[in-house]
Each structure stands twice: as C-alpha cells, then as structure tokens.
Design brief:
CATH class of the domain at 4-108: Mainly Beta
Helix content: 25-40%
Radius of gyration: 19 Å
Largest sheet: 4 strands, antiparallel
Order of helices and strands: HHEEEEEEEEHH
Number of helices: 4
Distance between the termini: 72 Å
Strand order of the largest sheet: 1-8-3-6
Structural class: alpha+beta
CATH topology of the domain at 4-108: Jelly Rolls
Strand content: 25-35%
Length: 160
C-alpha cells in the first residue's frame, strides 16, 4: 500500500480529493527495479497502471532476439505509463525498460476500474490524464509521419 502523501506529490493526482487519494493508495504498491530491468514485456497481460517515483523508464518495441529495440518515449518521475491496462484486450503494447534504478507505484488496474465506477469524478479525472497521454502520443506520431513524408528524398542514378 502506498501513502496518501506519496500520491499527493504527483501532478497527475493534484485534482483528486484526499479521500480519493486514500482509496487509490490502498490499491497502489511501491516497487523498485534495477537499471536495465523490465517492468513488463510487450504482450503481457496489462494488470497495473504505473507512476514513476524515481528513475527513468523507456517504453520500447523489442522484437524477439533483439537486445535494443525502438524507443518510443521515456517516462520520468511523476509521469504515468501502462494505460493499456484500461484498454481491451488489456495487453501491454510496448516493453517498459528501466534506464536507471527506478521506483514506481503500481496501481491495480482492475481495482482502480472499480473505484472509477463507484466514484465517477475520480474516473473522469483519471481518464482526462490518460486521454492527455494518448493525445500527446498521437501528436508525436503525426509529427514524425509528417517529417518522413515531407522530407525530400534524393535519388541518384548513375549512367549506364
């Protein structure tokens, strides 16, 4: 179980009342990971929503047999990841790799979902945060796609 004061220090929980924080704290657990360890793998059942307390987490697509993979984004202290735990089929779409020794709060997604049903205001505030994350991902993907399409390709041909 996490402490209410621990949750209250994070910006994403600022809109929550003290009683809402107390309910979330009951279903949150502090977990620590060493540098380069994986919090979860792509394809695992998404059971937790995570908030970084300390450290840095890279969200990557790593194919079987690859050591590195493609890094999509990083999560630093105070940021949320693992939102796939609220989307069907509740499966993580990226691998979460610790870039340094890391501490996270792991919030049980099923229990949090029930809390959201019981307290629609809590659910609304949480979903606003999750929507913000996905909108930022969308903007980044759109910007990257535009950069790939807009950049002129130089084609050279040799005679003969």
């Amino acid at each position: 179980m996490a402490e209410v004061m621990e949750l209250a220090k994070f910006q994403m929980f600022k809109p929550f009342s003290e009683s809402q924080l107390a309910e979330v704290a009951k279903i949150a657990a502090k977990k620590t990971y060493e540098r380069y360890s994986h919090i979860y793998e792509r394809g695992n059942a998404a059971k937790n929503l995570f908030v970084v307390s300390k450290g840095l987490v890279s969200l990557r697509r790593i194919e079987p047999g690859d050591d590195v993979g493609i890094a999509f984004e990083t999560r630093e202290p105070g940021t949320l990841f693992g939102a796939a735990s609220f989307m069907h089929p509740q499966e993580y779409t990226l691998t979460a790799v610790c870039l340094e020794d890391t501490e996270v709060l792991a919030i049980d997604a099923d229990k949090l979902s029930k809390l959201c049903e019981q307290d629609p205001l809590l659910g609304y505030r949480l979903m606003l945060k999750i929507a913000q994350i996905y909108f930022e991902r969308y903007k980044t993907a759109k910007r990257n796609l535009y950069g790939m399409v807009h950049t002129p390709a130089v084609i050279t041909a040799l005679p003969g």
